[in-house]
Design brief:
45% of the residues lie in helices and 18% in strands. It is built from six helices and four strands; from the N terminus they run ααββαααββα.
Length: 175
């Protein structure tokens, strides 16, 4: 059966676009407000990366975990670990997600969700190069107060799972 064979009704409700609900956007914004660091330096960045890497390793996840510090000279990788099943493509994805966080000051999943809630997509409406930017889940701003001091990210799973692993790691780290 093809789409043309499916009977149509006037009152048929279209399938919702994944990750486009206002409730999800509110939840993501709440995570950003809640997950603020008391301090950040290279040692703390490596500790945070280690927490997330331990979660990934314990579950056998095929991901790359990265933490970058924002410095006056530009971003500096302070932690990165790749697990079996990941690939150099995941490094590229993390870079694209981190570019979104730097550009918009919000988690990459938050940015993509905001566009979908507004009835469009990041790719259609941002005007940004898709080779450089990806508003897919997995990159999260590291804040001390209101200042973004770094970014943490994961790549290798479906975007909502990448994001969830970062949030779980940050929550564990902040305990």
């Amino acid at each position: 059966m093809t789409d043309d064979d499916v009977p149509r009704t006037e009152n048929a409700t279209p399938e919702p676009v994944p990750f486009s609900s206002a409730a999800l956007l509110a939840e993501l914004l709440g995570q950003q407000a809640r997950l603020v660091l008391p301090r950040f330096d290279y040692v703390e960045g490596a500790r945070l990366g280690g927490v997330i890497a331990a979660l990934a390793e314990g579950r056998g996840l095929p991901v790359v975990v990265r933490v970058e510090a924002e410095t006056p000279a530009g971003p500096h990788i302070v932690f990165q670990r790749a697990f079996p099943g990941s690939s150099p493509t995941n490094d590229w994805w993390i870079g694209r997600k981190f570019a979104v966080v730097r550009r918009f000051g919000e988690a990459s999943f938050t940015v993509g969700t905001r566009f979908r809630v507004e009835g469009t997509t990041f790719e259609e409406s941002s005007g940004l190069d898709e080779e450089t930017y990806a508003a897919h889940g997995g990159a999260f701003p590291l804040r001390v107060g209101d200042e973004i001091v770094g970014i943490v990210g994961v790549s290798g799973l479906p975007q909502q799972e990448d994001h969830a692993l970062v949030v779980e790691g940050l929550t564990t780290y902040l305990r």
